[in-house]
Amino acid sequence: MNIENLLRDNIKTIKAYSSARDEYKDASADMVFIDANENPFQTNINRYPDPQQSKVKERLSNIKGVKTSQILLGNGSDEVLDLVFRAFCEPSRDNVITLPPTYGMYSVLADLNAVKIQSVVLDDNFEPKVNEILKMQDEFSKLLFLCSPNNPTANSFNSNKVEALLKGFNGIVVIDEAYIDFSNSDSWISRLNEFPNLIVTQTLSKAYGLAGIRLGICYASEYIISILNKIKPPYNVNQLTQDKALERLNELGQVIQEVNSILEQRTILANALSNVSFVQKIYPSDANFLLVKVDDANQRYLQLIKRGVVVRNRTTQPLCENCLRFTVGTAEENQLLIEILNQL
Ligand SMILES: *Cc1c(COP(=O)(O)O)cnc(C)c1O
């Protein structure tokens, strides 16, 4: 498979912006830096950040066992996904395939980039319909989005089906692993070198507890990463984010403890929900949320809002009629939710 053939024509020949900090990287070194029109007085952040975020990447490389040359960081996964659109999808010509019900940003980014969306709804077990997907692709199908574990259905996709899609799809397969740290399944990053058309995205927004700093991670082949590097805004990850991310990645014990607590609470919450009179179904979860079918999602949603609890109403999504999505909170928050539900 030749990935270069999938690129947009303007991207094939594009030249990256060369920033001052690309030429001489370490502004903290013992040199005089008068190359970037910065204010010379110290605030700790008066210098432009490292455009390659080398320290964060090295730490991630150690943790994940992926080379730094196979990692790209962005201002949230949302920026990473947008870069992927801009690299591969010719506006008003190409299309991407999504599998509803799923994360809303894929279609928002497609619209933003004037790229058509082909949808193949998941089957009744919330698994991809492999044959239909492969039949639907055409010569302009550039991206296939697999969200696993999937938001809002909470399941991980069967790995044989994912593998069949990686082998059968003629474009790039983007596996969004925003919830992988809550999952029993292995990350697809261990298979990167087998599949030249594989892009895996992860984020510090969920398990790592850093939604506020906006740090998304993209793992792919060196070639794909080199392309995305050329087109990303040079200083897309700010210094405060880089510092905070590194700090958190150096206290993995704390992260693991929090994830374990959330998983424990997920079980407790699911058990308690199964005793609520109007709860009809609790779907198995491989993530930090539960998809729950109730008698009347719109009514229950409003009742909860009145009592100060905000949940996500997914009832308009395909296969999610009368479903609410509950994020697993702290023990106290979950307790409160259960008490309120039982009072309704
Ligand atoms: C929350 C979420 C993300 C995270 O996006 P960021 O921009 O990194 O915060 C990505 N994908 C899915 C499916 C999500 O639910």
Automatic annotation (TrEMBL):
Keyword annotations from UniProtKB, A to Z: Amino-acid biosynthesis, Aminotransferase, Histidine biosynthesis, Pyridoxal phosphate, Transferase
GO MF: transaminase activity
Pathway this chain belongs to: Lipid metabolism; Amino-acid biosynthesis; L-histidine biosynthesis; L-histidine from 5-phospho-alpha-D-ribose 1-diphosphate: step 7/9
Residues recorded as bearing N6-(pyridoxal phosphate)lysine in the entry: K206
Cofactor(s) of this protein: pyridoxal 5'-phosphate
Catalytic activity, as annotated: L-histidinol phosphate + 2-oxoglutarate = 3-(imidazol-4-yl)-2-oxopropyl phosphate + L-glutamate
Gene3D superfamilies: Aspartate Aminotransferase, domain 1, Type I PLP-dependent aspartate aminotransferase-like (Major domain)
Record EC number: 2.6.1.9
Enzyme class: transferase
Any Pfam family: Aminotran_1_2
Coiled-coil region(s): none
Tree of life domain: Bacteria
Keyword Protein biosynthesis: no
Ranges where the Aminotransferase class I/classII large domain occurs: 42-340
Family of the protein in this entry: Belongs to the class-II pyridoxal-phosphate-dependent aminotransferase family. Histidinol-phosphate aminotransferase subfamily.
HAMAP family: HisC_aminotrans_2
Full protein name: Histidinol-phosphate aminotransferase
Gene from which this protein is expressed: hisC
